[in-house]
Design the sequence.
């Protein structure tokens, strides 16, 4: 009854929304880590794009997915050696 | 040349075998020549769901190992002359068959049948690889739960890696009462996440348990709602455009209308 009342006034989150949100997050991780070569392909393309603008340290480049409670973030650490004057 | 379809899910217990039995029987009911193949070696079940467990002489491994011809291992259904079952071996392990052997077997069956339906075991190991080896198309069965949908997503990826594209989804065990309360993901939610084509939605229905108890697929029961859902799936497989069952209507008024059959026939 209490649950019903709180829903009536829109304060309680439906459990299916929670399910969908948790699924969305876990699938970002699953797909990125399980799809063969996905992250490597991404790294390679990032290097190509960035190299047009700056000289980057390819050896020191790190690209990872980091997840917290409510989001997954693509975190890239890319050491820059030099920036080009012209594109 | 017929078409081979694998029924798979990743997660166990979501209704793969029931779906395979019902779709196969439904296709036979409309006159198609159908062969059901139980690829769940060691955990054979399609025979009991079909009510054919007492007729088994040879099994899939006997055929693959050359102990008998395919024809002599096929069990004819009780109800339809155009429906056959190739049972799994119960006393062997999944690695007793190789994907190439399964593909050769399915290819041979496709020459004789309009549809070859392969019931895939749960999991993503050898049994899965065997079951998908000869498939032209995949049907993924899931339920509207986090674990089942996650596994279904993994299966989509693995099928793609095996060059089996555009799988179609059956969402099983839908509970309209829970959807109305916001406690179960809707069809739209699941499709939104998996981004694959929807083949059908099947309600959680006691008549499935009753029909499985009897060994008579629910698709033959005119009064069963899940039977109706499977008949619709069969028609969609045959290319017809059939509206989905109205399992998720939230409006009481609409439900009332339907109760009195005022909003057209059940689809």
Sequence:
């Amino acid at each position: 009854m209490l649950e019903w009342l709180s829903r009536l006034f829109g304060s309680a989150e439906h459990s299916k929304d929670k399910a969908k949100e948790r699924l969305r997050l876990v699938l970002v991780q699953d797909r990125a880590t399980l799809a063969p070569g996905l992250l490597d392909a991404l790294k390679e393309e990032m290097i190509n794009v960035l190299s047009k603008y700056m000289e980057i340290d390819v050896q020191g480049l790190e690209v990872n997915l980091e997840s917290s409670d409510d989001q997954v973030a693509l975190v890239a650490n890319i050491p820059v050696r030099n920036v080009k004057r012209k594109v | 040349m017929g078409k081979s379809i694998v029924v798979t899910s990743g997660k166990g217990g979501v209704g793969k075998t029931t779906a395979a039995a019902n779709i196969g029987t439904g296709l036979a009911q409309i006159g198609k020549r159908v062969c059901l193949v139980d690829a769940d070696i060691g955990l054979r079940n399609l025979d009991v769901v079909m009510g054919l467990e007492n007729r088994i002489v040879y099994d899939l491994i006997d055929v693959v190992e050359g102990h008998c011809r395919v024809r002599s291992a096929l069990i004819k259904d009780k109800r339809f002359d155009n429906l056959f079952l190739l049972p799994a071996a119960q006393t062997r392990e999944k690695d007793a068959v190789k994907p190439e052997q399964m593909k050769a077997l399915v290819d041979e069956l496709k020459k004789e049948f309009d549809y070859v339906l392969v019931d895939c075991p749960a999991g993503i190991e050898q049994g899965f690889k065997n079951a998908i080896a000869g498939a032209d198309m995949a049907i993924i069965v899931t339920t509207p739960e986090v674990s089942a949908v996650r596994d279904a997503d993994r299966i989509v990826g693995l099928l793609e890696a095996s060059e089996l594209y555009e799988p179609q989804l059956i969402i099983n065990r839908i509970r309209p009462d829970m959807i109305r309360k916001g406690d179960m993901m809707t069809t739209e939610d699941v499709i939104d996440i998996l981004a694959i084509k929807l083949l059908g939605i099947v309600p959680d229905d006691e008549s499935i348990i009753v029909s499985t108890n009897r060994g008579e697929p629910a698709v033959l029961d005119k009064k069963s709602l899940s039977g109706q859902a499977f008949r619709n799936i069969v028609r969609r497989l045959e290319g017809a455009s059939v509206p989905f069952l109205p399992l998720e209507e939230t409006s009481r008024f609409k439900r009332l209308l339907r109760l009195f059959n005022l909003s057209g026939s059940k689809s």
